[in-house]
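Let us practice reading a record.
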Amino acid sequence: MRKFFKNLLFSDASSSVTRWVVTFLISLLLFLAVVTIALIAVLRDREVLIPQRFANKIISEANSLSFPYLVEVDDVYLSLDDNFIPNLVVRDIDLLSPTKNPILSFNSLAAKFSLADLISSKFRVSSVTLDGANLSIKRLENGSLNYKFGSSDLSRTDNFDTLAFLKRLDYFLSTKEMEKFQDLNFFGLTAQFEDEVNNKNYTIDGARFRASRVDQVLAMSFDLALLTGNTDVATVEANFKSPIGQLNGEFGLILKDIPSQDIALQSREFGWLSVLDAPISGALRGSLDIEGRLNPVNATLQIGKGVFKPSSDIKPIAFDAARTYFSYAPGSGKVDFDEIFFDSKDLKATADGFIIIEDITNLPETFVAQLNFSNLETGTFGFLNNGISSNSATSTFKVQLAPFDIEIPQLFIYDIPTQVSINTTGFISVKEKYWDISLDTISESADLENVLYFWPESHKSKVRQWVVDHFEESKLFDISMQMEMGKGDSPMLSWSFGFSDTSFSPLKGFPLVNKSSGHFVSKNYSTTVLLEKGLFFDSNKRTIDISGSRFFIENSRIKPTPAEILIKADGGLGSFLDVLNSPPLKLMDRIKQPTNLGRAEVSGQGIVNILLKKDLKPDEIFYEVSANAERFSSDLTNPSFQITNGSLDFFANNEIIEIQGGGLVENLPV
């Protein structure tokens, strides 16, 4: 080659014209090289306005990509990035509808492309960056969307179809125009979202969107700040990854400080959050199958300090924190909870379980739930003496969110401190502005100490103290506690239980009732103790059967509380009189008669009215005793003759004593 140029330039056969042409070409190449280097240096330092002819060609290529929508710009600039890749920069770009109505406006657009492709009449974009846009979106009551730019409606679409969107996106990325596409970046989006379905307004601020293609895999992500009207700013992050040309993919969503009621509005499976007013942070993970259908979604929610507020009129119940891990198949109506944790003043619980939404298409939302508690600790709720502590509890209940109502067919709890198993049924509702609660808690068996463990000292305190003072060695069964509250009233407790092999004394100083069985009922303001079986032992260990006796308090609101004791007795006369002479009655001492008046079989009853208070005085005890003595015999009046086969009627109260009857007298000297 060098020999060729030498011959060409210095051969005698070469003309001067030929040498001039070659010299010109070499100089031109050198000049072009210098100009190219200078142009590159210039383009790296500044943006150069592209002539309108070339700009129109670029815009025409862009419109072919955005069809049927149109792109409208004023000027197009060219520059080079640090890797000497051409970069188109457009200011004030508008996206128009097919009828040339404005849809969206961006502050700037930057696109990287191949200059060689552009020279060969091809426009192959590798990277696009958009910055700054304002958009208004309205979701109508029928679910369709209206987009607004300024004051005019721009476009309208039906409900968002994820599957159709993915198919269009795959088709778009498979076109020749997008064969060199690598990434899309979108910054500075501000949007106003008006949701007529849920009557809510939101502001999206500083949104960023990113999409990239690596090895035929499309990855998309976005993050934004969400202004919901609360003082705190919520944030949302999301990502999606899918092979291009396929519908399967994986997605994730990260939430921070989103109001619970806003999350509840997004899906029926989240409707149970509507009764809370608290910030929620968390994450959702899910995937699409090869048909583009949603697989079950896994979610983690951390719920901050807030209140339980099922109605705007009801007084809310504060809690400190909550969290839950759950999964659900969208549209299935079932949510499976791996863990639910709740922490408040009166309730700390950890559970797992599920809820089933009965009718996922209609309001108000109603669901059935079953929870299994591995830890359950309660406070007193304002009506218990001690809280519950359990590591084994289950519950089945039905919830209606509006109006709020919980039906509880089963709540089983094993209480560790008392080692008692209890089962609760009932309902918790909101009516007008008040809680309406009715709960019935039962236990098959327990000791009296277990009942007193939960019975608050301030509730029917005199009745409770009477039980403490007079019941001993009690074996209880069929224990029931009822709690009712409504119309803003304080909780009203009712207790009932059966007892057997029990010892108790109806009056202080009276002999103990032994081997007794019966029922204790304390409902509303009245209390009754019914003896089905029971025995008195007199001072000589002789028995009196007092089955059928009763202790009754009509109204515990009266202070001091009056009580009535009805004692039915069958036994020997001596035993009967011995018991009547026990304190505080001391009936025989008052009439100055011995307790061994004679022998007879006595059947009678006594009614004693007392006040439930300390230091009860004898004159504060009112009694009335009536009895019948059959087969009466006695020689107490005169040892020389006897009264036999007598029948006596006996009556006594605080005022008088009457004894009358007849019989046979033996050895009477007449």
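A brief commentary: Residues 505-666 form one domain.
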